[in-house]
Design brief:
Rossmann fold; 5 strands; 60% helix; globular
Length: 149
């Protein structure tokens, strides 16, 4: 059982909103405090806008009702800059959005949920708590089975 609040990156958001994960997402939302970064929301909306004809405004409003959307503040930017500097010194390069999302999880003491765990592995030594979306889904499936018994 995961006790900390969850922060979904755009890959986790996409995975959890797939039709096949609908019941898992509902259970997660019932049992956990779930957040998304405004930047993950941007990536998610951009991808959906590209791949399908969707009313982005309605989708934004729907997402806003489901999740706590976290903006970027001074603490998060400073942590992201610190992480970027440290990683760059050792030859590891991440894009700005991924760094800011990871910094958000660290600053807010949340578990980052992602479909691309390997990308964030180097940040665990800086305090990032990380779980793969498939691992989270497996935990939730077990919780649902226990709940049903």
């Amino acid at each position: 059982m995961i006790e900390e609040a969850l922060l979904l990156d755009s890959t986790a958001l996409t995975s959890l909103h797939a039709e096949s994960n609908k019941s898992i997402l509902e259970f997660i939302l019932m049992k956990h405090e779930v957040h998304i970064s405004i930047l993950s929301l941007y990536e998610y909306l951009s991808a959906l806008g590209y791949f399908s004809k969707v009313d982005l405004n309605k989708l934004y409003q729907s997402i806003e009702r489901i999740y706590n959307i976290i903006g970027v503040d001074r603490q998060i930017i400073l942590k992201a800059a610190e992480l970027d500097s440290a990683l760059t010194r050792v030859g590891v390069f991440l894009n700005s959005i991924d760094l800011i999302v990871a910094a958000t999880a660290i600053v807010r003491n949340m578990v980052l949920v992602t479909a691309k765990s390997e990308l964030y592995r180097d940040l665990t030594k800086f305090g990032l708590k990380l779980i793969g979306v498939e691992d989270l889904c497996e935990i939730i499936r077990r919780e649902i089975e226990e709940y049903a018994e």
